[in-house]
Design brief:
By secondary structure, this protein is mainly α. The protein has 22 helices and two strands. A two-stranded parallel ribbon has the order 1-2. It is globular. 36% of the residues are buried. The N terminus is likely disordered.
């Protein structure tokens, strides 16, 4: 793209700066992990966390992979926190949990090495340069485009499963709504205009997410965090203390949500054991308020245990290690081969292509008798476990490194080539990659969504984005006089 190297402005900070107080607190927290139960594993995780975050999140660059890394990290570390909460050894429910934890931390480190490399190749940018790019677009037109995308996405979401052959492409197109969300959010923050509109749409997305069976309210939180983290340039001690306080509050709310989620979902589907919502939005919100105001009966439930057990996802990896190769042999590429065959064989070439049922694979490799598709639930194995099934403890890191390279190179392409406007490109990569936050995702889901989303956004980049940018762009004459 002509002029691609000139859209970033003059070089500025290449790393986030920390004041002495923040550095001291972080070092204290880092060393203190060694003195806790299962401290060696906590320390290993903290080392991976510190290295990857320091090198991955760079000032005024997209934070999508920072959020993906953090969620992966939490899903590996949560089983350590669960063991400590219960006062039990790490291997209290699987003999391979120690190995699974080490492989989990090592795997996410290796996965993100290529991504860190490509993040570093993106030229550093100044805040003033970002404002120049923001001023090239109309915030009003961007807001209107978001509203149109909002209603189109909701309509497409209702028909995605009706047309199985196009469902993956439809879900990728739905991500365009989040592209407009990010593009509008960037302009709001940089131009300091239409802040009320942005707060209202964030609130609407959050509330509507509660009406969804799958708790889609988390999605807008991730995209809001994308915007916030992207602007971090300096961290002071007070910022770190506020972040810790916020983390405590979020954890409390998450535990509360875990306590009421089961009963709330039964209300949503009216006991039908389906994943559909059978009540009105107002009834759903009223029910949620009622449940939230009730006290938790800790004699009947332990929401802290339920919460930590829900977010951790090394258990399936550990149970897979228990069974392979002791019960089942390594497959040396056959498992991933079946994944690729399923992903790259379109239904119009194979009308008999079955519906992917993640639970069946999870049952086979973990030996756990989960309910499945017929009961309206799904349990995924996790793509780290898929890599272990084929290649064992050390070989599993090779496909993770390759996946990291695919992520990183695609990210670098879209952030440089989507348009001549940097904020436009930042919004594109946020919309493309945010759906890959989960460590728990099955390899079939990861590869299927990655292929469909990259193909969809490549077509958009070639045939739609040039026209779209012209519609959002403010003419040069108006920029000079504004």
């Amino acid at each position: 793209m002509k002029g691609a190297s000139n859209i970033f402005g003059r070089q500025r900070l290449n790393r986030i700066r920390y004041d002495d107080g923040a550095q001291g607190l972080l070092i204290l927290l880092f060393i203190s992990q060694l003195f806790l139960t299962n401290g060696i594993y906590l320390f290993l995780g903290a080392a991976v966390l510190a290295y990857v975050l320091y090198n991955l999140q760079q000032p005024l660059k997209p934070s999508v992979f920072t959020l993906i890394f953090l969620y992966h990290f939490v899903q590996v570390a949560a089983n350590i926190w669960l063991s400590n909460y219960l006062g039990k050894d790490l291997d209290f429910r699987s003999a391979s949990m120690e190995e699974a934890t080490i492989c989990g931390f090592a795997g996410i480190f290796i996965l993100f090495v290529p991504i860190i490399y490509y993040q570093g190749k993106i030229p550093n940018v100044s805040l003033s340069a970002l404002r120049v790019h923001a001023n090239k677009m109309s915030i009003e037109k961007t807001f209107k485009a978001y509203l149109i995308a909002f209603f189109v996405a909701n309509a497409l979401g209702g028909v995605a499963f009706v047309i199985p052959g196009l469902s993956q492409v439809i879900f990728s197109v739905i991500n365009i709504k989040w592209f407009f969300f990010l593009l509008f959010g960037y302009q709001v923050l940089l131009k300091r205009r239409m802040m009320k509109h942005f707060v209202i749409l964030c609130s609407a997305e959050f509330l509507l997410g509660f009406i969804s069976y799958f708790s889609d309210f988390k999605t807008v939180i991730f995209f809001g965090a994308f915007l916030a983290v992207s602007f971090i340039m300096y961290v002071k001690l007070k910022h770190l203390c506020l972040a810790i306080a916020g983390l405590v509050l979020v954890s409390f709310l998450a535990v509360k949500w875990t306590a009421v989620k089961g009963e709330y979902r039964v209300f949503l589907n009216q006991g039908s054991k389906s994943q559909n919502v059978s009540v009105s939005g107002s009834d759903a919100i009223n029910k949620l308020i009622d449940l939230g105001s009730e006290d938790i009966d800790y004699e009947k439930v332990d929401p802290v245990y339920d919460f930590l057990d829900r977010i951790q996802y090394t258990y399936h990896l550990a149970k897979t290690m228990d069974r392979i190769p002791a019960v089942l042999p390594h497959e040396y590429g056959a498992n991933i081969g079946r994944t690729l065959e399923f992903v790259f064989t379109p239904r119009f070439l194979n009308p008999d292509k079955p519906i992917f049922k993640a639970t069946e694979k999870t049952r086979k490799y973990t030996g756990i008798s989960y309910a499945g598709y017929e009961q309206g639930v799904s349990f995924s194995l996790g793509y780290f476990a898929d890599c272990y099934i084929d290649f064992g403890y050390f070989g599993m890191f090779v496909p993770l490194l390759i996946l990291g390279y695919i992520f990183g190179s695609a990210y670098f392409y879209f952030v440089r080539r989507s348009s001549q406007n940097l904020l436009f490109n930042y919004a594109v990569v946020g919309a493309v990659f945010m759906e890959f936050t989960a460590f728990e995702a099955d390899s079939t889901y990861v590869m299927g969504r990655l292929f469909a989303t990259l193909l969809t956004f490549l077509m958009l980049k070639l045939f739609f984005f040039p026209w779209l940018y012209r519609q959002l762009e403010i003419p040069a004459a108006r920029i000079k006089t504004s």
